[in-house]
Design goal:
The complex is a heterodimer of chains A (219) and B (272). Chain A contains 8 helices and no strands. Chain A has 219 residues and is mostly helical. Chain A is flat. Chain B is an alpha/beta fold and 272 residues long. In chain B, 43% of the residues lie in helices and 18% in strands. Chain B has a 5-stranded mixed sheet, with helices on both faces. In chain B, a hairpin with a 5-residue loop joins strand 2 and strand 3. In chain B, helix 3 crosses helix 10. Chain B is globular. The chains are: A mainly alpha (219), B alpha/beta (272). At the A-B interface, helix 7 of A face helix 4, strand 10 and helix 8 of B.
């Protein structure tokens, strides 16, 4: 078991190719998770039980089943119903939807944390529901959520290797392909670990900045 | 030069050290083998029992060597050789065809299972593929193959770019992806495709065999280079079984030709 620098240098471009895809998937899934999560959180609080109940059920259902099972379902089962998604799209939908159910809970915590008086004040000043959400509740609810949301962003990033199960050529899959023909795991797997760590550290710094910049609005 | 030294070193090593591996296996009562799940080469039934031509031959040979049982673990083709080197398996018996680069990494036994390559295609072969080169020539064609399998390597060698060689985890997924139109071709050995086609019972699919320009390959049981003595002992028993016809009695019901395995040799297939 010896580290071979020449081999490591040789496979780096291939792995970086995979890293690009990993980052793209993370970015797209994070957007889906952030937006859809908010939709879930707001819909669960809807007055009408016809909206709140099914959404609650859907969220609990997705949150309670493994992501890998969902990915297999989206990729291999849905085509039977005529829905044929390319691997990347299937992956983004799978991960985005799954993480949306987690972020929905974060949003819920943030929203419920806004003092009751704020809702009453909004009603007293005759704001519409839309105005109440957009100008009173969310601006106060979102900043404290940033650390928790950031946590899920990093978790999501690190779960992208699951997509190798549905033939997405992200970084982990690229590393496996390299190992398949070289019979060496030490360099590809170490490099994948290093790249993930580097990206996570960079995103931590970015998210700290974000927290610092926008977190203050809550005060 | 390096290989000469290695051979010398192996020959010079005391016989006691060599015998150790087999003694260890006898003492523990089983050998750990790596398999895929690709009938008829290797098959795992719903109850977990392992069959298929490669494990059946290995089980019999190990029995004759005094190792009563084999314990199989399912692995991706590409992970088998690293797993062997990491001492997770004692042998690979999975239809891992001999190719010179694999022969350089492991110690193969004499040939066991031989088969040509085949394509699983939509009915009527709409794009007219007959070889791996045809797939390389069509810029939109995608081919499915097992990760680290012979077909993946053949496709890449024929010049199909990496992004059009889709790594398929198992036969069932490959079949499904072809039916869904995610793949234009799914490639495996002839007997594996026949098996898959028979199980799928789908009139919209057909098999093309053999693939033009892809020779007949043979697998062997693969051992660690250090366990060459175990490999040699395996070869002795395998040769006896080939002689007596017991070998044919195991592999022929699965559709493999015993004569094909007996008409070639490791030296020839490994290009030694």
């Amino acid at each position: 078991m010896e580290w071979d620098w020449t081999f490591a240098a040789e496979i780096t471009p291939v792995l970086l190719e995979g890293l690009k895809l990993t980052l793209l998937i993370t970015l797209l899934s994070a957007i889906v998770a952030a937006v859809l999560g908010l939709v879930f959180a707001v819909a669960r609080r809807a007055q009408s039980p016809w909206v709140a109940r099914p959404v609650t059920f859907l969220v609990e259902f997705i949150r309670g089943t493994p992501l890998l099972v969902q990915l297999y379902f989206i990729f291999y089962v849905l085509p039977g119903a005529g829905i044929l998604l390319p691997p990347l799209v299937a992956g983004v939908i799978g991960m985005g939807l799954h993480y949306a159910t987690y972020t929905a809970e974060v949003y819920r915590a943030g929203i419920e944390n806004v003092a009751r008086g704020q809702w009453e004040a909004a009603r007293a000043t005759n704001l519409t529901t839309r105005q109440t959400w957009a100008h009173v509740i969310l601006p106060q609810a979102v900043p404290p959520m940033i650390p928790a949301l950031a946590n899920y962003l990093i978790a999501l990033f690190k779960e992208t290797p699951l997509l190798s199960a549905i033939t997405v050529l992200e970084m982990m899959n690229q590393a496996k392909l390299v190992a398949n023909s070289s019979y060496r795991y030490i360099e590809p797997m170490t490099l994948v670990g290093v790249f993930f760590l580097a990206m996570s550290l960079v995103s931590v710094v970015l998210l700290r900045w974000l927290e610092h910049r926008f977190g203050r609005l809550a005060k | 030069m390096k290989t000469t030294f290695l051979t010398l070193a192996l020959m010079a090593a005391p016989a006691a050290v060599m015998a150790d591996k087999l003694d260890d296996l006898k003492a523990q009562g089983f050998a750990r083998i790596a398999i895929a799940n690709e009938p008829p080469f290797t098959a795992v039934a719903a109850d977990g029992s392992v069959s298929g031509a490669a494990p059946d031959v290995a089980r019999e040979v190990f029995k004759r060597l005094g190792v009563p049982e084999v314990v199989a673990s399912i692995s991706e083709y590409g992970a088998m050789i690293p797993g062997l080197q990491a001492r997770r398996h004692d042998a690979i018996t999975a239809g891992l065809f001999m190719k010179p680069e694999r022969c350089a990494a492991v110690a193969y036994s004499e040939p066991v299972l031989c088969d040509a390559e085949a394509f699983l295609l939509p009915k009527g072969n709409p794009k007219g593929f007959t070889s791996f080169a045809d797939i390389a020539a069509d810029p939109t064609a995608t081919i499915g193959a097992p990760g680290g399998g012979t077909e993946e390597k053949l496709a890449l060698e024929a010049g199909v770019p990496r992004e059009r060689v889709i790594v398929v985890p198992d036969g069932q997924s490959g079949l499904k992806m072809l039916q869904d139109g995610r793949l234009d071709v799914y490639s495996l050995p002839v007997l594996s495709i026949s098996d898959l086609l028979a199980k799928a019972n789908d009139p919209n699919l057909e098999m093309l065999a053999p693939v033009v320009g892809a020779p007949v390959y043979c697998d062997g049981a693969a051992f660690r280079k250090e366990d060459a003595a175990l490999r040699d002992a395996f070869d002795v028993e395998l040769a006896k079984m080939k002689e007596s016809g017991e070998f044919a009695a195991i592999v022929e019901p699965y559709g493999f030709s015993a004569a094909a395995a007996m008409s070639t040799s490791r030296a020839e297939l490994c290009g030694e």
